[in-house]
Amino acid sequence: MSVRQIAMALMLACASTSAFAQTGSQQPPPKPEEQPVYEEQVVVTASKVEQQLVNAPATVSVVTADVIASTPATNYAELFRSVPGVNLSQTSARDFNITMRGAASTLATSTLALLDGRSLYLDFFGFVAWDLLPVNPNELKQIEVIRGPASAVWGANAMNGVVNFISKTPRELDGNTATLTFGAFGRDSERGQQLAKGTLFGVNATHARAVNERWAYKISAGGYTSDPFARPTGAIPNGTGTQYPNFANTGTTQPKLDARVDYDQASYKLVFAGGYSGTDGIFHTGIGPFDGNGVGVGYGTMRYSRGGLKFNVFTNQLNGDARGLLAIGTNGQPILFQFNTRTYDVEAGNINAIGTRNVVSYGGNVRFNTFDLSIAPRGNSRREIGAYIQDEIFLNDRIRLNLGARFDKFGNIADPVFSPRATLILKPHANHALRVSYNKAFRSPSLINNYLDTTIINQLDLAQINAAFAGLPGRAYAFPVRATGNETLTQESNQSYEIGYTGIINNRATLSAAVYWTKSSNEIFFTQTGRYRALSPPPGWLQTFSPGGTPILPPASILGILEVLPPACSSPVAACTSGGLPSAFSYRNLGRVKNRGFELGIDGAVTRGLNAFANYSYQAQPVPDFALSEINLPPTNRFNAGFNYSQGHFLGNASVSFVDDAFFQDVLDARFAGPTQAYTQVNGAFGVKWLRDKLTTTIKVINLLDEDIQSHVFGDILKRQVIGELRVTF
Fold this sequence. Notes:
Radius of gyration: 27 Å
Number of domains: 1
Distance between the termini: 39 Å
Number of helices: 8
Strand content: over 45%
CATH architecture: Beta Barrel
Largest sheet: 22 strands, antiparallel, barrel
Helix content: under 10%
């Protein structure tokens, strides 16, 4: 018997003991028509060991293949809108960011994303580009979402959660599938631009074949393109009078290609895979929007498994450039950000059963990155090494204890980082589990955090200081601001305490609940670190107030303006911590932030073909020990409900999501901070299967009620999208 079989046998034995004790004897199998219509998911992401969802030592949600097939979503990030505890912000036609149990900012840095265990995290800026996933939706078996810290297993950057895309094997895909998607969306926003309807188009195809008992392969390709959404116009809703800047918004084009070959032996398995995914369009950052061009990731991977032993090697090769749309350099031209990064990773792990009560998993990885970044020229490489060990202890059939820890050493962090996890699981019944857990996780400073080095030109409307300046020819005064990295940054860390429950109700539904308290320390923020003073005014400051050589005010008064907070910094929602006219920004570790909240959810089968779900998430306002204006504030309340149907010739999907108002301050300076309005998004889809399920036609609608949805104060406005889809299987 293999190690993996031993481990699974131990877990099944503990589950069956309780069930047998209650029945007293083995029951005959139910008749076919009485078979349960609900199957509990098996997950691997929680501990790198296959286990039933009810036994996972962390809070995990699963997006199934049926949901992926019928959802109206045109991108992967949108799939997580209905997951409790997950906050999503969309800032352009291509730019999505998600954060678990926290505010979703631009370039969200605290979520680790994986494809079959291969990291999709972009180390140079420390975020995930969700459109750079190289596989087509029909290739995914399920998506596992860990809500909460997971560095004890996955290492750096799994600070608030992990998303693991698990693909189908070529044998599971065996056949050919082609999908054509086309649609249109509104761009006539009441709070933004009045544009003609936009269009979107997508196509993908997958070919898979099991050649014989040992060899199987698949190859897939696809592409997606969309016009830009509408930009908001008018004053930013923060009371400062600051107007939304006008820049050339762009859509997106996203090609992808992927290939995989599997070799299955009786005692081991080999997987070889490689591919490319590309994107262009708007990336929103702390210094404003950038228009990406030719951004792409090529990858290659080899995975070997033999029982519980696993050995993986992969490389990610990222290239691209982006042009600043508001970030202007000292030469008067938009800042050009060119990036070229190479990632190489080797990982090994194993699982051993010790006696009858312990399943021990352990492993580690070595990661090496090279960087060539135009706005961070001094950073060129980084080395990382980490190792973990985890023991699942079966104290008896009702009590389990999961203990784990990981050490990581990063080249840019002085000391090793220790990430422990302890989870006590109480099982009064095989289908019910109560968890009490402690986790600590971390995020490493990105290369940009450490080595950013550029100067941008900012502007100040002098009429905001004094109405007398409104007549000045150059009332928009331009001044330089230095933006630099910080090599002394330490890692961000997050400690989490959680009480959770997962239960299977009548073999029909999964019920979940979680209450959590977190404390984030040394969070990394891009913040003002310098100001112009009367003794060191910005270039041309005095001359600006003297058109034609005639001073409007005495020089002393002109210089004195620098000692007074500008209007944008005196607003209660946009206070500048350093005040004055900013001369420098940099990254700093800022104190601690406390969060707390709870999540409730139910997901299960109503009939054989109909599944329904509902969940609610509550997040209290974060409590920092520094200025509240430095952080984003997440929506307090979120509610999701919906269903997924697939039976006979018909399939359908419908969902409603309510998201409370939120507050964002992470783009440009304090003048551009502000709240978003609460919104309700209704999505739906209806499809018909033809020709013995070989042909499927579907109509999908996103934002059925056509609300003006703005999920980030600086983001685009989402209107109704109507999408047609044609899928052929042969």
